Amino acid sequence: MILSTKKLRKEFPSGETSLVILDDISFNLEEGKSLAITGPSGSGKSTLLSLLAGLDTATSGDIILDGINLNNLNEEERAVIRKDKVGFVFQSFELLPSLTALENVMLPSELKSEEDPEKKGEYFLNRVGLSDRKGHYPNQLSGGEQQRVAIARAFACSAKILFADEPTGNLDPKNGKLISDLLFEVNSETDNALVVVTHDQELASKCDKKIQLKLGRIVD
Amino acid sequence: MLANLSLKLFVRELRSGYLTSMLLSLVLAITIVSGISLFTDRLEKALSSETKEFLGGDLKFESNENAIKDSLKELNLNSSNFLEMAVFASMVISEEEMQLSSIKAVDKSYPLVGEVELKNESGTYKTRNNPPPGTLWLDERLKNLLFLEYGDVLYLGDAEFTFTATIVYEPDRGSTNFAFAPKTIMNIEDLGKTNIIQPGSRVEYNYLFTGSETEIGQIRTLLEKNKKKGDEIESLGEDSSSLGRATDRSENFFLLGGLIAVLLSACTVGISSQRFARRHISYVAILKTLGMQLNQIRSLYLLLFLYITLLTLSLGLSLGWFLQSNFISLMDSYFPTELPTPGFYPLYVTCLTVLICQFGFIFPHISKLLDISPMRVLRSDISFNQNILPMFFMGLMAFFLLLYIYTNQITLSLIIFSGVIVFSFIGIGFIYLMLGRSKLGLGAQDPVNLALSELRRRKLSNSFQIFAFTVAIGLSLITFSASKNLLGSWQNSIPEDSPNNFAINITKEDKDLMKPFLSEKGVEIKTFFPVANAKILRKDGQAEIDRNFNITWVEDLPDQNVVSAGNWFTEDEINGLSISSGISERYNLEIGEQIIIQMEDGAIETFIQSIRTVNWDNFSPNFFLIGHPSLFEKQTSTFITSFFIPKKDQKVASDLMREFRTVSIFSVEELIKQVREIINQVTKALNSILLLTCLSSIFLAFSALQDGFDQRRHQSAILRTLGATSGLVRTSSLIEFSILGLLSGILGSLMAHTGVYFIESKVFEVTPSFYPEIWVMGPIIGIGVVSGLCFYLVNGLMKQSPRDLLKLQT
Q1: Half-sphere exposure at residue B757, Cβ-oriented, CA atoms within 13 angstroms
Q2: Do B715 and A55 touch (CB under 8 A)?
Q3: What would the pLDDT profile of A29-85 be if each residue is shown by its tens digit?
Q4: Which positions in chain A touch B438 (Cβ < 8 Å)?
Q5: Above 90 in pLDDT, residue B232?
Q6: Residue B801: its chain A contacts at CB < 8 A?
Q7: Furthest-apart CA pair in chain B: how many Å?
Q8: Number of CB atoms found within 10 A of residue B365's CB
Q9: Alpha-carbon distance B349 to B560, whole Å?
Q10: Tens digits of per-residue pLDDT, B586-606?
């Protein structure tokens, strides 16, 4: 089991009371499998993703990632988990504007102090079909190209699990399909688990497992 | 609707805290500008009336003859704005003693300005009248020397007088050149019966005038027309006394402090406005998409900035008034009366400063903001027009205007302006080149690599940031230096044991006896300067030099004289004459020029060997002309010297006068005290300015850092999402900003060093010195302040989760 949650709850303070965003979320995901999290806007999908990836902490409940309970860790320890076990793809790409495409892809390897980050970066950039754009900065790339760089960066993490938050949300249907195909294609070449938050039913249907959220609870 | 929306926007902006640095900088700038201009305005008005009293009127005419009196008749002058006085030296004789005195015979208009303060057996009192005929007023020293009581009989020439009062304060104390001996004031109607003034007598006729600017202008024209050789005209504003120079300098200090604080604040306002505009891009795009017209959006932002102006003006002016009240309370013991109320000038200068800051540093950013395309709503990558030239130009214009307002001198403004531009280009270019080319990758393996890579990667923005820190550190160091070193050197120019007594008319015989006499009483005399009256003529007969000078001849360069051109006298060469730089400039006299020195005992042909800068504030005998003794062997002269008598031993001065009756001794103790007092009070006031300038610098450094951190926030969020620890981000930021701080500190020290050199040599006219502490403090402040502020900002970032940071970004 690469990821499991048990009675997960997340509240945000709102004035004198608190707002429950997620409640009683429990599920399991096996290694190498994919999971789609769907639901209407405001249902808590992105909040759940950030908890699962160790970007934020739950109010109560457990998140076990590769055998480690994230809720028992502080921010520094969670950062190490993110570095070693997690990869990300965001809706708004989140590339560093001051780095070239290649340098953005090299970043996870640099953080892990791996040998020859350049070689690894070039490999993944080539894998997403952008080797000829390696010297370009994000503002010189189209939306689709930027997301491909983000995917290359996520796979360059050598992660055990990859989280994608609306990876096709900012793209037109044609580019959206290309990106979702690429995501699953590259993922199939690794033994990574994949968690995708999406509105896109076609993308969700590609996943091995699907959970639907409504008002912070799993309904399906 | 617009007013409502703009008010809401204003309140929202205030609450958000994003405007804090802009508001604080504007309030601080207004506080400093209004505080200083209110203070200097009141000080100037007070000084003008003080100087008027010191001079005795608005205009003074000095002549050795009273021939001008007939010409004055054609002006039909009213007796209330015209005073005639005769000044000469004569012996005053009491029943027991006799003493040389400086006599001032005044007509019924005396005193033309202010009041005379006198003392008699009933105590002190003030009067606006001249002494009644048959009476004399004497100063305290003369009363003691002559062993007088009020009502005693005195003799002056052939006439008998009654001593009725001692002089405590006379308003026109700067009006006479015979003020070296103890003073006597008499009625001019009694002058005839004394029979003292005979053909050939050395007497000086002074005519003092008051009136409107036009009347004074007419009088001056008439006097210029009838002026003869040796006659002198002096008007207000030509005061070259130590007191005048001291107050002039204090004003220069304040204006310098004010200018620096305003420039720092203007930079902060510029950076804050840039952030403001960036934050409002989406807002303006949405308003445009919703159909709001450009004029309406422009009005909306104009209203917003009107509120900001009104808020900052009201706060700044109130604080400015408080600041100037504090300055006044420091200085009020110096001014005998209440300081005049300020005019409208301070308000005008303050409002003009705010307006220039807005047009030069805020509106260009707002104008760019208004140009944003409504397409931004759909495409977040759309940003400002990249052409920064118009904005740069407006900023420079505003900078120049501010310089001009504060210096009021076009040449000086141009010099500083071009200096700053050249320094900026060289500085930014140098930093840019020094940071070098970036290597592949972010270098996120360790903090040092990451920091160095960030320094190179953000080369351009780092160069501007370093430049902003450099300006902040450099200007603060200049103010600090002005406050400590310049004031220190000024204070040191009047050491505790500065000579407080001058002795003149010393014969050669007296000279030989005076030194042991004083030495026995514990008073040391360093040098006796021979002194004679001389005129210099150009050998080629060109351009006459229309005045007489006191000349001395010594082998060694006197203290606080510095040779600025040519060489001082040497034993193995032919020696000539050394002249002061003022005389050289005024009469266009150059090194090597052949001249004739015309003296009572004959003429001496020689050449100008050197030009000296003279510290006229040192309370020692100073000379326009110094010759080599070998040229003056045949000349007869008297001697002049100065010495320090401790306050407790003032009796020594009376003993000296009794022993050497022909020697004239006068005390400058009161003047030294006054100048010292001004320096001390100015130091206190300037420390407040220093504190406010440092605050402006911190605001500027903080704004520059905050601006840079907006971009770093995103990077930090992504790095932490990808697994970078807070330690890596925090340490690399601290290393990066410590390097930025160190570079800024070194460059700030260089800027301060250059600035202080310029200010010392050009503004305060003292010999520039090397201040090692500037070079130590600059880097320490740079690293301390910049990394301290960075630590504060990074800690704020680290408290937020990467998820929140990414959310903030989108």
Answers
A1: 9
A2: no
A3: 998 899 999 999 888 888 898 899 888 889 999 999 999 999 888 888 888 898 888
A4: none
A5: no
A6: 55-57, 75
A7: 108
A8: 23
A9: 38
A10: 788 888 888 888 887 788 888
| Interchain contact, B803 vs A82, CB within 8 Å | no
Q: Is the pLDDT of residue A154 over 70?
A: yes
- CA dist B288 and B273 (Å) reads 21
ipTM of the complex as predicted: 0.86
Judge whether residue B64 has pLDDT over 80. no
Tell if the CB–CB gap between A79 and B723 is shorter than 8 Å.
yes
Give the model's confidence band at B808: pLDDT under 50 very low, under 70 low, under 90 confident, else very high.
very low
Closest chain B residue by Cα to residue A116: B441
The tokens 């009625």 sit on which residue?
Answer: B187
Closest CA to B314 of B85, B31, B544, B582: B31
| Chain A interface includes B458 (CB < 8 A) | yes
Contact status, residue B202 vs residue B87, Cβ threshold 8 Å: no
Is the alpha carbon torsion for B243, B245, B251, B256 positive or negative? negative
Nearest to B183 by CA among B289, B82, B243, B105: B105
B710 alpha-carbon distance from chain centroid: 41
A102/B443 touch (CB, cutoff 8 Å), yes or no: no
Closest CA relative to residue B533, chosen from B228, B262, B199, B202: B202
**Min Cα–Cα distance to chain B from A76, Å:** 6
| A107 in contact with chain B, both atoms CB, cutoff 8 A | yes
Confidence check: pLDDT of B67 > 80: no
Q: Is the pLDDT of residue A194 over 60?
A: yes
Q: Which of B379, B716, B722, B810 is the best substitution to test chain A (most A C-beta atoms within 10 A)?
A: B722
Mark out the alpha helices in B17-91 (DSSP H runs).
20-55, 68-72
**B297-342 confidence digits (pLDDT tens):** 889 988 988 999 899 999 999 998 888 888 777 666 555 456 677 8
Residues composing chain B = 810
Burial (0-12, 13-18, 19+ Cβ within 10 Å), A164: buried
Distance from CA of A3 to the nearest CA of B (A): 18
Q: CB B718 to CB A118 under 8 A?
A: no
Please give the Cα distance from A193 to A36 (Å, whole number). 11
Q: Which token pair is B354?
A: 């705010």
Instruction: For chain A, say whether B378 makes contact (Cβ under 8 Å).
Output: no
**In this complex, is the C-beta atom of B803 within 8 Å of any C-beta atom belonging to chain A?**
yes
**The total number of structural domains that make up chain A:** 1
Residues of the domain holding A59? 3-218
Measured CA to CA in angstroms, residue A193 lies from A33, A93, A180, A181, B360 at distances of: 5, 20, 15, 16, 57
Q: Which of B444, B446, B725 sits opposite A107 (nearest CB)?
A: B444
The answer, for B495 touching chain A at a CB cutoff of 8 Å, is no
Q: Which residue is listed with tokens 């699990």?
A: A161
- The answer to whether B466 and B743 are in contact (CB under 8 A) is yes
- CA-to-CA dists, residue B803 to A52, A135, A168, B121, B282, angstroms: 12, 29, 19, 90, 22
Contact A107 B715 (CB under 8 A): no
Q: Give the integer Cα–Cα distance in Å for B645 and B652.
A: 7
Q: What CATH number is associated with residue A96?
A: 3.40.50.300
Q: Residue A82: helix, strand or coil by DSSP?
A: helix
Nearest-CA distance A47 → chain B (Å): 9
DSSP B137: E
Residue B710 in contact with partner chain A when CB distance is under 8 A: no
Tokens of A136: 């370009």
Strand runs (DSSP E) across B170-289, as ranges?
A: 183-187, 203-209, 232-235
Strand partners, B639: B506, B530
Quote the tokens at residue B84. 């005639």
Classify residue B614 by its DSSP letter. E
CA B232, distance to chain mean position in Å, is 28
